[in-house]
Amino acid sequence: MLKTFSLGGIHPDENKLSADAPIEVLPVPETVAIPISQHIGAPAEPIVKKGDRVKVGQLIAKPSGFVSSYIHSSVSGTVDKIDELIDVSGYKRKAIIIKTEDDEWEETIDRSPDLITEIPATPEEIIKMIQEAGIVGLGGATFPAHIKLSPPPGKNCDILIINGVECEPYLTSDHRVMLEKGNEIMVGVQILMKALKVNNAIIGIENNKPDAIKHMITLASKYSGIVIEPLKVQYPQGGEKQLIDACIKRQVPSGKLPIEVGAVVQNVGTALAVYEAVQKKKPLIERVVTVTGKSVKKPCNLMVRLGTPVSALIEAAGGIPEDTEKIIGGGPMMGKALSTPDIPITKGSSGILLMPKKIATRKPVQNCIRCSKCVSVCPMGLSPYLLMTLAEKAIWDRAEDEAIMDCIECGSCSYTCPSSRPLLDYIRLGKSKVGQIMRSRTK
User: Fold this and answer.
1) I want to staple 299 with a disulfide (CB 3.0 to 4.6 A). Which of 17, 122, 271, 360 is the partner?
2) Angle (CA) 146 205 345, round 5°
3) Dihedrals phi, psi of 272, to nearest 5 degrees
4) Greatest Cα pair distance in the chain
5) What CA–CA distance (Å, rounded) separates 428 from 421?
6) Are 274 and 284 within 8 A, CB to CB?
7) How many CB atoms lie within 10 A of CB 103?
8) What is the pLDDT of residues 195-234, one digit of tens each?
9) What H or E segment, with its residue span, contains residue 240?
10) DSSP SS3 for 325
11) 257 secondary structure, DSSP code
């Protein structure tokens, strides 16, 4: 019997329309807009100015705090300006705009396709290289990877878990990366294991990707300590706590991180980026993005330079269908509607979903009928109906007591609600406010 997590979860229609589409390299755009905040934590600080000449892979912004990340140029050309542009959040954020002139790379980057399996770097050197390459979690959370690889004093990791679940409906970028970059991922996993000083790693993959499971099992047989774990299809299994529960049956306590149960979780895309950083000296300047939708002419998976406008990806997929109501950054469950297709691709951009009006239009909100479906599907054991009410009425102390900050924003509650109540919308608002209150206490 296939493993899965023990609490809640749903199984929405998968619609993996681009699963058989090989990764294509999107042409380099004429201009890129590279946001200085592409990660959880403090925005980076630009170290270039208007008129500066930059190469592909050149450092253009440095971290401004403990939780922050390096930013590198994804193209070569001239810095046109540093300006505020609308990002995926819908707010204006600072970005470095670069006009592309050619494709000159930093000389230190190894661009050959040769697989390098030897790992001479020490754990400390690996973590430093990962930090300086600007690598963050590519599953969507964008937490700086080097911090995860440096457990605090008194906390020990005994297992690495690699997330190849890709439980979001429609998205297939991780699926294709496993099929086409499997060897690089395996070496990347070994690098992560060496950095953490652990001997065991599990790569969890949902059973709706049988070709990826078969391929990765074959590859893993050549690498010591790496096990492939096929998992039952259950959303949101890609959540860290859910994946840990599914793979090793350890439950992360409320308000705690995975290291509390001796685990560190990284995405398969992150493992690939780690391989490229440590073995090829290549910083994080591009990623695979799925472009899809039921009316999209050519659902595809594209290797995209960071800072490329979303409009360029949509054009490569055949343009915007006439019946499109929303353009979603990410998947339909946790993604957010974009206010404009001019928004740039960032480190956390896993997909672009063009949603037809028939699917995107929300149904009228009705009164709660106390059916408790939202409670039964919540993978964190929360009471979404109650959290929505508390946020709606601004009862913040009670919302905190009811563990609103434990919500992983998976959207399972809203998906299953027969009254079409905007549960997740209000919970997100509540989390924002309660988070502000909690942070104010530490100042």
Assistant:
1) 17
2) 55
3) -65, -45
4) 63
5) 14
6) no
7) 12
8) 999 999 999 999 999 999 999 999 999 999 999 999 999 9
9) helix 240-248
10) strand
11) -
Q: Listing from the earlier edge strand, what are the strands of the sheet with 53-54?
A: 31-35, 92-102, 76-86, 53-54
Q: What tokens does 431 get?
A: 């989390």
The residue written with tokens 């010591």 in the block is 224
Kindly report, residue by residue over 304-336, the tens digit of the pLDDT: 999 999 999 999 999 999 999 999 999 999 999
pTM: 0.96
Peptide bond between residue 236 and the one before it cis (omega within 30 degrees of 0) = yes
Question: How far are the Cα atoms of 186, 255, 284, 304, 353 from residue 310, in angstroms, in the given order?
Answer: 30, 35, 18, 10, 11
Reading the block at residue 125, the tokens are: 């050197």
Q: Could you give the angle at the alpha carbon of 29 between the alpha carbons of 184 and 15, nearest 5°?
A: 60
Q: What tokens does 48 get? A: 């270039």
Which two structure tokens, joined as six digits, stand for 287?
């990623």
Instruction: With H, G, I as helix, E, B as strand and everything else as coil, classify residue 321.
Output: coil
Give the right CATH number for 123-280 from 3.40.50.11540, 3.40.140.10, 3.40.30.10, 3.40.50.1820.
Answer: 3.40.50.11540
**Would you list the domain boundaries of the chain?**
123-280, 373-441
Residue type, position 76, single letter: S
